[in-house]
Design goal:
Blueprint (H helix, E strand, L loop, with lengths): L1 E14 L2 E14 L3 E5 L6 H8 L7 E6 L2 E2 L5 H10 L1 E5 L10 H11 L5 H14 L15 H13 L5 E5 L7 H18 L2 E6 L2 H4 L4 E6 L2 E2 L1
Parallel strand pairs: 3-8, 3-9, 6-7, 7-8
Antiparallel strand pairs: 1-2, 1-4, 4-5, 9-10
Length: 223
């Protein structure tokens, strides 16, 4: 079943007097429960495409559909709810809040969503952290963790609201080989055991090996 699809997707940025046409008519289909890797050189538009799929930016032209729902026909509030409840995001640079400990960072998306059973929420966050090998580090701060541990916290944070789709932008880009392999295994496990749809942007050919579908983006065009 098709979960996400784009039709004639364009993105143009106004760069002074010269428009920058980053995406040039992208048609992409993402099946529910699949892993899709978007591969391409720097500047090809990979992150821009990921942001449009995830409702983080607005297209200049074209459509993004979540099943039959046109994402960009929604109000900002409605789109924000989908980003928080249906989508999860993992970035290369983690984006954890330094002043909050590990448990608090994981809890943040659910607290923003107005979750009213804090004890149940904490138990879920602790279970997620234990699952990725971070049991006992709930009270540590980001500055006390390795790069691999930081990315695992970021993944737990992305999962706290039970998303249908996990968007990953270079999720292993800052990791050593051991941590990279652990994150790759975790993404595959989420896909296999929980049927989570994973869309990832990567330069890492090893990450493409776990993908059901690999698309190549160059100069704003899919190949």
């Amino acid at each position: 079943m098709v979960l996400l699809r784009t039709e004639n997707l364009h993105k143009v940025y106004n760069n002074g007097n010269k428009p920058l046409h980053v995406l040039k008519g992208i048609d992409l289909v993402i099946e529910e429960g699949s892993i899709v890797a978007i591969v391409g050189p720097s500047g090809s538009g990979k992150t821009t495409l990921l942001n449009l799929l995830g409702g983080l930016d607005k297209p200049t032209e074209g459509y993004v559909f979540l099943r039959d729902l046109d994402l960009y026909s929604l109000s900002d509030r409605e789109l924000s709810q989908i980003r928080n409840k249906t989508f999860g995001f993992v970035f290369q640079f983690y984006h954890l809040l330094a002043e909050f400990n590990v448990l608090e960072n994981v809890l943040l998306p659910a607290l923003v969503d107005g979750f009213n059973n804090l004890n149940q929420l904490k138990k879920k966050a602790q279970d997620l952290l234990a699952r990725v090998g971070l049991k006992g580090k709930e009270n540590n701060f980001p500055s006390q963790l390795s790069g691999g541990e930081l990315q695992k916290v970021a993944i737990c944070r992305s999962l706290i609201n039970g998303p249908k789709v996990l968007f990953c932008d270079e999720p292993t880009g800052n990791l050593d080989a051991v941590s990279r392999d652990e994150v790759i295994a975790l993404l595959k496990e989420l896909n296999l055991k929980e049927k989570m749809t994973v869309v990832l942007v990567t330069h890492n050919e090893k990450l493409t090996y776990i993908a059901d579908k690999v698309v190549y983006l160059k100069d704003g065009i899919l190949n």
